[in-house]
Design goal:
single chain; ten-stranded mixed beta sheet; seven-stranded antiparallel beta sheet; 12 helices; 18% helix; globular
Amino acid sequence: MKRILLLLAITLVFSSCKDQLKLDTTTTKKAKDTFIVAEHYNKKEVSIAMRDGVKLHTTIYSPKDTSKQYPILMQRTPYSCRPYGENEFKTSIGPNQYLMKEGNIIVYQDVRGRWNSEGVYDNMRAFIPNKTDKQFDEASDTYDTIDWLVKNVENNNGNVGTWGISYPGFYTTYSTLSGHPALKAASPQACISDFFFDDFFHNGAFLLSYWRATSLFGYMKDKPTTEAWYKFPEIGTEDQYQFFLDAGPLSNLNKYFGEENVFWNQIKSHPNYDEFWQSRGIIQHLKDIKPATLVVGGLFDAEDLYGPFNTYKSIEKNSNNYNGVVFGPWSHGDWARNKERQVIGNIHFGDSISDYFQKNIETKFFNHFLKEAADGTVDLPEAHFFNTGTKQWSDFTTWPPSNSIKETYFLQPNQRLTQQANRMIATSDFISDPKKPVPYTEDIKVVFTPRKFMTDDQRFASRRPDVLTFETEVLENDITLAGDILAKLQVSTTGTSADWIVKIIDVFPADTENTDDVQDHLKLSNYHMMVRSETMRGRFRNSMTNPEPFVPNQKIAVNIKLQDVLHTFKKGHKIQVQVQSTFFPYIDINPQTYVDNIFEAKASDFKAQTHKVYNDSAIEFSILK
């Protein structure tokens, strides 16, 4: 029974987190439309030697039709090439069903130190710009793999593309640094770029919801294996909020892991943005990129928003290649699924949106640069964004749009959000109690990677005394946000440490009717839909590397950059801003007493404090004109 439960847990984690993020398309197709991979592809498993002699397990699916040549589409992954065995086939291969059905050579590889590959795994392995002799990183492993493939796989046309979602998206970004001339196109999707801002931290605040994922990345293996060698901690409850509340300080979670969990010990030992984290970031290296790139993300991705936005912007700024970006109304990896109705939480955004992307954007991108005589141009928009307010796609020649301007709204007394600041000094105050943290969702459940809450109804939060609410009057005209959002808070606290969370919310009119997707206990009448949120661990307000305590009762600036949106607040709606200091258990609880390392904080360090938000605090929006 324990083995069955472990296998079930592993299956759930891989399906919800970072596995291939590809659902079996046959479950949504009629029997007559079923595509059986084994009937159209041959499968071969090889071990490819890297420059230092380490061999990486590589699975190759080649079309049985050998009358023509095909490009190679490759994904490098830490999540396994399963199923293993040349007679065992995936139910779906490649980035999407169209690229699978029309014929491509599809390759999967277990990265160094993971699953059936040799070597030692290094989480977010640092890039070495000027490698010598047998020095290696993920770029050199990609180069060596591509070099072997184009020389040894029959019927390939010499062109290679890479793709991947989430962690495989990180390896896709990394592939653009390989320098191999055969690599013509890469699509980093929901790509991790820096664990201090993606997945495990947000501006220095630890994402407690990812705590169990340290098992996935933290346990090492000493030889190739086709079986899971790690295990996940059992928390003994379906109430994740209560579990972490009862657990108390982060140090009390140590008992669930042994010293052999390398990643958990690394997290605890590096609470600041030091060289350990900085060296593992990939954004700073994205210069003079040659392969065509198509960056893809979900506007409601709770895991990886920082990565795709900053990957695109960095390549755009520092390279002269084709560089496109697509953001849709998706949670993590939704664009690779085959759902008819696209729903996030309670909000229905439309039908066949992922299929539209796969057919008209992703397939066109790879076919152009891998199969056609590509000249660097392609009939695709530079930036293809879904407006989550109007529920329509929009094209832009630049992102952020060149016709967007900055407008400032001030957080005023009496819960008002206005474009005029009151010159008299006033504050909005609340008591933040670590023993009663604000939940990030009303739902009571255990989740590995949160998804639904990104559009959740925020009425439950606005009615709490420890959440400040500011909103406009009913809008007389549509207002479209297009780009990033900057919260410029002026605050003080009676303590020496605090977190600050800002949420941007669309308040629906009272006459909004329910759809079939709304939870039974909710109504879309006056629904408070979260559009964007972000956390800033206050100690990092001036520097992620050199944290500072607050001086009790001293007014100070805290700026929080919220990731980009494209959202129209329609006439008849209201724009709302919420400010709070806990977001639990998505984010861990700040003790509100300054300690050098929160992972070593004691129970006695956690104290209720009074926070003040001054009325010269403002939200700077990018407004589309």
